[in-house]
Amino acid sequence: MTTTLQQTARPAAAGRATPHKVLAKAGLYAFLLANAAFVTYLFNAAGVGSNKLVNFGRLAGLYGALAMAFQLLLVARLPWLDRRLGMDKLTSWHRWVGFTIFWMLVGHLVLIAFGNAGDDGPIAEVIRQATELEGILRALVAWVIIMVVGVVSARFARRRMAYETWHFIHLYTYIAIFLAFTHQIVVGSTFRKSALATGYWWGLWAFAIGSVVIGRLVLPFWRNWRHQFRVAAVVPEAHNVVSVYIEGKDLDRLGAKAGQFFLWRFLTKDRWWQANPFSLSAAPNGKYLRLTAKALGEGSADVRNIKVGTRVFAEGPYGAFTTMHQTRPNALLVAGGVGVTPIRALLEEIKGHVVVLYRVSDPREAVLLRELEGLAQAKGAVLRLVTGSSKTITANGPLLGPDNIAALVPDVEDRDVFICGPNGMTDAVVQSLSELGVPSNQIHAERFALAN
């Protein structure tokens, strides 16, 4: 049953973030601000010279080094942060911190070069220092790498570059960070001025690098050694969709939640180097994990050919798209295309009364529909299939416009809304919810972007 909505659009209520997100954000801000203040203190304690350009250049370099350490913390994929903020939010921070590093290092080089420049100019001064002072050449190499990574990460360049190429170039950032750190050890006057400063910088870098080693190496290898993942079954769901069941040891202790995803590596001779992000398409039950893949690209298309018994290396679970962030008793789940997989898993786990809007162009494209119907019936949920082209206009306007959503779910303002689907659909739904006045803390739309 539908009703016609007759009201003016209202701005979205601000809403307070969930306590988990507030705590994580507060922790990151406190870490960054406290370290920035202490870096400033150490800089002043080391002694400030009369050359203002050089002073500002040195300070920019110190802030750039701090931003590099903070960047490592963001890309470490530490479970505590990831489950509270989500990979997409951490990736957004990663992007902005990256550009902060870019401009800090530009300022560091330019200000010091002009501050020390003699009659021959700043470029000659840079060349002189690179040839005469230990550690300057490695800093210049690091600077060039950061500049290249910054340029290719700009939107105008990123859109014109294959992801694999961009990712490969991006990995050189780790080399730049290592070179910048060794430059700081050799040349940095603040680093060497006092035992306090030396201990602080060594401790900061040890913490940042240790976070990456733990989050990106130790935890994944330990989890895979402990759980021994293998392919238990490969089940076709449609002509271009397949579900893969993964078995292992002690899966009830993995800590995975419905709505999360893993990076899956199927350890065959032709696929072991490929890591594909797939969401869980069923709530973890301690017996198996299930992913469902549609043949959209080369990696996902090959999943259907995986043999039973194949060893699997899984990184995760990742993501904050879980009931951990539910703020209201009831929920609306909105799925589009292959985004139905985490939505289907959430429907199995989420509490309260649930409405599911499943957006597909054609009913025949509705993957896992029978499972959704069975779960909806068992949980007393409402499942609505929203079909039609992107140009379809209903009696209440566009399919996912504010009026039609309000007609389908009249109490939407009193529900948490979980959205997963193509970016265009997700943006449209978020905009509609904003116009309907749904508080922002009730809208959960993780895009599963990866920070490198």
Automatic annotation (TrEMBL):
It comes from the Bacteria. This is Ferric reductase-like transmembrane domain-containing protein. Its cofactor is FAD. The chain crosses the membrane at residues 26-44, 56-75, 96-115, 135-157, 169-187, 199-219. It is found in: Membrane. Its main location: membrane. Gene3D superfamilies: Nucleotide-binding domain of ferredoxin-NADP reductase (FNR) module, Translation factors. Keywords: 2Fe-2S, FAD, Flavoprotein, Iron, Iron-sulfur, Membrane, Metal-binding, Oxidoreductase, Transmembrane, Transmembrane helix. It is a multi-pass membrane protein. Residues 224-324 form the FAD-binding FR-type domain. It holds the Pfam family Ferric_reduct. PANTHER family: 1,2-PHENYLACETYL-COA EPOXIDASE, SUBUNIT E, NADH OXIDOREDUCTASE HCR. PROSITE patterns: FAD_FR.
